[in-house]
Description:
The complex is a heterodimer of chains A (about 90) and B (about 180). Chain A is mostly helical.
Amino acid sequence: xxxxxxxxxxxxxxxxxxxxxxxxxxxxxxxxxxxxxxxxxxxxxxxxxxxxxxxxxxxxxxxxxxxxxxxxxxxxxxxxxxxxxxx
Amino acid sequence: xxxxxxxxxxxxxxxxxxxxxxxxxxxxxxxxxxxxxxxxxxxxxxxxxxxxxxxxxxxxxxxxxxxxxxxxxxxxxxxxxxxxxxxxxxxxxxxxxxxxxxxxxxxxxxxxxxxxxxxxxxxxxxxxxxxxxxxxxxxxxxxxxxxxxxxxxxxxxxxxxxxxxxxxxxxxxxxxxx
Lengths: 87, 178
């Protein structure tokens, strides 16, 4: 059980055009083949602008550049192992 | 792992994380610096005449393999530092070769994982080691910085999810389910 209430998609207003959630859902479907917003995003939703800032960094670091996606995923997993992050 | 690693690949990646994490601890604990460093290691590096033949053979092997990896001659200090304990050197060098030099997952991916682990652990010696190996393999500064970006972003996500005790709602398909 998280220490904060996780907002549902309909409760989240984020981004200048209000479409951040929609964009994240599209990517989650592509990457994880799931139709829901992951809890890591819901956990950020109480603070206006936080999801958008994280989403922009996620795009910048994970989706752009020359390093192949698999290598980035391996590094991300390795960092999470070292940080003992069960999520 | 979503992008195509099988169980062997995942285990290989985990083994590299395990191995590099240990080496990070040792290099930092021994105060090892790269060639430009001036600090004395905690345990002085042995002179050649202090080594037994078995350790010398392994260091010669390390010199050859590491020159290919790093593009510079000489034995990295980490291997010299371990050479006062032959059995430890032998086992650790064998593991290093197994994980970094055997065919398996993308060799550049292995080095990138080594860099990511070393940055996460703040290991100055191995940040330089893996950065040098990646640049010798052809990566430019932009790609190196991409790895730092991934470390930064996932350290951030790790902080959020652990700090708020967020339960995982995305789990990898387990072997038992396949």
